[in-house]
Design brief:
By secondary structure, this protein is mainly alpha-helical. The chain is built from eleven helices and no strands. The longest helix is centred in the middle third of the chain and has 26 residues, at 76-101.
């Protein structure tokens, strides 16, 4: 087999496994259900959680459900670490899917959801401007995480720059959502209400940031 086909084939096989997994088990699962499933895996739970976070968002499984389950099951700090590792693996998977495997189909999907202004902006996403844009988009919870991954796979941004910008942008939201999951088992406690306040603060700050940087546009870039 030619070396140039190894990466696309590996990404395709991983994606097919994720599709089967999603259809059989996870299409209707809640954060509580996912927490119970992870708990049943015993010492394999952290590795299983990372694998699920790496695979399921490629099929548009809601990352908030995964993050909340991670916080419930592992707590804030360990859960944040596992979530970060899984999210970075998923970012790489979706990026390479868009770039090497299902490029035309993914391009049609993305372009149906982007305005002409955003298309022009993303066409220039190879340099410093694109790096900063990606960091900011990662910070804004209202911007679909999955769409970002596929969209930037269609740009000329280098994989290393994409992964670094993704890492910088993912960390704040990961801590906020994992904190909610960690405190969700004690609703009404001071820690729980503080986690809600922190989420509201993140939403408010990123909404202001989005309006200042992208005046007159919907934050998700859709028509």
């Amino acid at each position: 087999m030619k070396k140039s086909w190894r990466l696309p084939l590996a990404v395709l096989l991983i994606s097919a496994a994720a599709a089967v997994l999603y259809a059989l088990v996870f299409s209707r699962i809640s954060a509580q259900d996912l927490r119970a499933l992870l708990a049943s895996w015993g010492p394999w739970a952290p590795a299983g959680y990372i694998a699920l976070f790496a695979l399921l968002p490629a099929l548009f499984f809601p990352v908030a459900v995964l993050a909340l389950a991670g916080g419930m099951c592992f707590g804030l700090w360990a859960g944040s670490l596992y979530t970060f590792v899984g999210a970075m693996l998923n970012c790489a998977l979706m990026f390479f899917l868009a770039r090497y495997v299902g490029r035309e189909r993914i391009r049609a999907y993305v372009e149906a959801r982007l305005s002409p202004l955003w298309k022009a902006r993303l066409d220039r996403a190879a340099g410093r401007e694109g790096f900063l844009l990606l960091v900011i988009l990662r910070l804004i919870p209202a911007v679909p995480y999955n769409l970002i991954n596929y969209t930037f796979g269609l740009t000329d941004m280098a994989p290393g720059a994409y992964m670094l910008a993704s890492a910088l942008g993912i960390i704040p939201g990961t801590l906020v959502f994992l904190n909610i999951g960690d405190k969700a088992l004690k609703p009404g406690s001071p820690g729980f209400w503080l986690s809600i306040v922190l989420l509201a603060a993140l939403l408010a700050l990123t909404a202001l940031l989005g309006k200042k940087l992208f005046p007159g546009e919907h934050q998700d870039g859709s028509r």
